[in-house]
């Protein structure tokens, strides 16, 4: 018969088991915290990297847009190949004929009434003094002589008719088949397809040369 003193006991076993479980829980919690901190660091790195990439793109895109704008401004500032220019042109309203130093006139004293220039295409020659007043309002005046082909006249008339602040008329006395005139600027071409025609329109229809920007091109002389 076994003695009561022969029963095996381990007084510290329960305590060690409890301590081990607590330690394990603490270890798991600490591991979870480390994992959470690692995720937060990764997320911060990803966010910073993405923000940097976006900012770089915006800055790069901004510089690209600025460069494009600068190129356009430089193109506007540069003279068109072959154009003639004049400065210090008079702007007095007169009731008499004016002896202009260029043909067709590109500015100077002019009539009180402007020639309508809202895409108007005239089949007869118009008065210089009225047309010059239109130039003062920022119009481009397209003129042609008998050397211009019918196809070119038709093409130019189509372009003028859909472009506000332009007008067109025959001008038998000019030296070039086709002449484009703005206030202080003039270009001679032989063909309507010359790419400088579009350049001239883009640059001088209500361009920076306009003495009276925004002035009307309607309500003047219509014939």
Automatic annotation (TrEMBL):
Protein keywords: Membrane, Transmembrane, Transmembrane helix
Source organism: Streptomyces labedae
Residue stretches of biased makeup (Polar residues): 1-11
Keyword Membrane attached: yes
Protein name in the entry: DUF3105 domain-containing protein
Residue ranges crossing the lipid bilayer per the database entry: 45-66
Tree of life domain: Bacteria
InterPro entries: DUF3105
Region feature Disordered, mapped onto this chain: 1-39
Biased amino acid composition, Basic and acidic residues: 17-39
């Amino acid at each position: 018969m076994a003695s009561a003193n022969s029963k095996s006991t381990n007084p510290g076993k329960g305590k060690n088991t409890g301590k081990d479980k607590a330690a394990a829980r603490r270890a798991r919690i600490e591991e979870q915290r480390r994992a959470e901190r690692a995720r937060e660091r990764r997320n911060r790195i990803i966010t910073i990297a993405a923000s940097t990439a976006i900012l770089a793109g915006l800055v790069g895109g901004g510089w690209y847009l600025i460069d494009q704008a600068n190129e356009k401004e430089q193109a506007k500032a540069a003279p068109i190949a072959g154009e003639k220019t004049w400065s210090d042109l008079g702007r007095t309203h007169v009731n008499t004929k004016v002896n202009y130093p260029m043909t067709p006139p590109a500015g100077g004293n002019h009539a009180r009434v402007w020639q309508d220039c809202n895409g108007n295409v005239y089949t007869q020659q118009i008065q210089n003094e009225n047309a010059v007043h239109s130039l003062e309002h920022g119009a481009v005046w397209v003129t042609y002589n008998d050397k211009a082909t019918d196809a070119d006249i038709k093409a130019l008339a189509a372009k003028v008719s859909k472009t506000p602040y332009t007008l067109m008329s025959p001008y038998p006395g000019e030296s070039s088949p086709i002449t484009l005139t703005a206030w202080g600027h003039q270009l001679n071409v032989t063909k309507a397809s010359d790419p400088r025609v579009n350049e001239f329109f883009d640059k001088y229809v209500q361009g920076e040369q306009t003495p009276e920007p925004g002035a009307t091109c309607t309500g003047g002389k219509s014939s």
